[in-house]
Amino acid sequence: MNFDNVPANRFNSEAMNQMDTGAHSKELTRISTATMVLLGVGWFGAQVFWAFHAGSMPLFLKDFTDSKFTISLVLSLAGVSGLIIPPAVGYLSDRASTRWGRRRPYILVGAFGVMICVLFLPQVGVFGLVALLSGFMYVLFRTAETTFLALLPDITPPEQRSTATGVMNLVGGVGLIACFVVGSVFWDEHPRLVFTVVAFGCFVFMAIAATLIKEPVALRESTPAAAGPMAYLRSVVRETNVMKFLAAQFCWWLAFWMASTFAVLFATQELGVPEGRSFLVPMVFAIVAALFMVPLGTLGDRFNRKSVLSWVLASWVVLQVLVAFSQNLTQALITFGLCAIPYAGIMAVGYAFLFDLIPKERTAEFVGIGLVSMASGQICGPLIGGKVIDTFGYRWIFPCAALFLVVGLILLQLVRDQADPSSDAR
Questions:
Q1: I need a labelling partner for 392 at 20 to 30 A (CA). Which of 15, 55, 189, 385 fits?
Q2: pTM, entire model
Q3: Which structural domain, as residue segments, surrounds residue 366?
Q4: What sign does the CA torsion over 199, 200, 202, 203 have?
């Protein structure tokens, strides 16, 4: 049956949507490790981009200005785009009906656009144009990232989601590491090569995964009801449990971006590390995080996800404060590496916990809204961090980040625990 020609109101009944979604949820079968790895291949490309954002972009931008606050303004465009693009793209993707699926067109177009922008960035010599092109780059990346993340709950049953997220982030972590290695080896002598590797790496790996992963047929055949702006906003706000989680998530991502945005500059300007070697700090962070993704993801599928997240955040508070006491590169590598362990827990378990809470028929839509809370932290974190550095110095950003982690931990306790999907697996 060809659903392209079926009238839109055929699927606009909320009751029909819930029935379709329930059927789809029951039809989901356990996915193989190979499929989890394939999700990771696409996330490899996404993490190549984020490594470029965290490591190469600050060094690239400092050649245009000495102001850390100005640098943070450009870097915060990644967060600004995250406020606008994910909800809109998620809403459209959930309601799309194409022969290529709901997610694939957005992933391919977004990743291809990112490749073009990254290739052109080093050719631009005017700071204003660099900022403008960077803004377009982040918009396109958010388009690809939002719809790619929605693939995981689309194809994965609840009892496997923490493990699948862990595997995805493990493979993605290799992308982070690879990009930091390339930056460390080639940045001092061949910075343009780094841009080229990032451009093609991001597009090729995301395109491979988007092409090979098949969306469930049932997902294509049901479309959530359309709604006006006010009705849509009311439907979002009514999900109070999700809103509480997103408030907590905002706090821990704000803390993460406060510290990580200036990790390379902390190493070079506070500890006196050469620029090329400064890439070791985020690289070690990425290596340790990758090692702990799958073990912590497995814990999230075996035990209560909220409890695992709570312990993860509590440990991160203590470890984040320790970073401020680093006196040389070795100590910085150790303290940042330790902070990577709870970060891995947030990545592996946090996403899966969000997937447990969101309405199943509006997956990409609420993934997009979830990215808004993350992007808000990505905006506020660098801005607050930049102001703290300009006022008090680099070391103060770490205890300040720990304070926001404490707030996130408190807010997480307000989230009502859903039925633990891992109990079905046991």
A1: 55
A2: 0.69
A3: 34-225+237-425
A4: positive
